[in-house]
Specification:
Blueprint lengths: L6 E3 L5 E3 L7 E5 L10 H12 L4 E5 L13 H12 L4 E2 L12 H9 L2 E2 L2 H10 L17 E4 L5 E5 L5 H12 L18
Parallel strand pairs: 3-4, 4-5, 6-8
Antiparallel strand pairs: 1-2, 3-7, 7-8
């Protein structure tokens, strides 16, 4: 199975086959408009602007599952992101990323890659644990978790919310140039990440 096998709804509630993105490097993110990480939209837009003419796309799937930090309609979310951050990349309909009603795409993504973490990630997850009781190890832990997909539709990396778009830039550049990217990380971070 690859990401191209999924169909999703865009912000205008139109069905989109992800096969439309075949052959491109993708970054999939669960954004939010009222989160401490919302300012990452600025970094995401800069990353998109830097590589969009080289076959790079960002796919934003807002989710309101974390303390209701993506309130509003799809139209309001898109308007907020364009007005405040100049977002020009594709935004999709608000979804659930965990639980019984999770978007099938996210069910797939969560099992496709090990998450890149750093010390700050573990500190952050410890802080938000009180707001996400009963969450499974492979679940999305917060807004702005990012998945990097290569030109063949394979998930090559999962990045924790505190990992910024700027830190992912080098991986995007390598994938665009045709290089392989392998992100290796021990799930509990005891052995670090490469």
């Amino acid at each position: 199975m690859k990401i191209y096998d999924f169909k999703v709804k865009d912000a205008e509630d139109k069905e989109v086959s992800l096969s439309e993105y075949e052959g491109k490097v993708l970054l999939v993110v669960n954004g939010a408009t009222g989160c401490g990480f919302t300012k990452q939209y600025d970094g995401l837009e800069k990353l998109y602007g830097k590589y969009k003419n080289d076959g790079f796309e960002i796919l934003d799937f807002p989710s309101n599952q974390f303390l209701g930090q993506a309130p509003g309609t799809n139209e309001e979310i898109v308007g907020f992101c364009r007005l405040n951050f100049g977002v020009d990349f594709k935004q999709f309909s608000k979804i659930e990323v965990n639980g019984e009603n999770q978007e099938p795409l996210y069910k797939y993504l969560k099992t496709a890659a090990v998450e890149y973490r750093n010390k700050e990630t573990l500190d952050f997850y410890e802080k938000v644990a009180q707001y996400t009781p009963g969450i499974a190890d492979d679940d999305i832990r917060w807004n702005f978790t990012k998945f990097l997909i290569d030109k063949d539709g394979e998930v090559v990396g999962r990045f924790a919310p505190n990992i910024t778009p700027e830190e992912i830039d080098e991986h995007v550049a390598r994938l665009i140039s045709g290089e392989e990217v392998e992100i290796v990380c021990h799930p509990d971070f005891s052995q670090g990440c490469l």
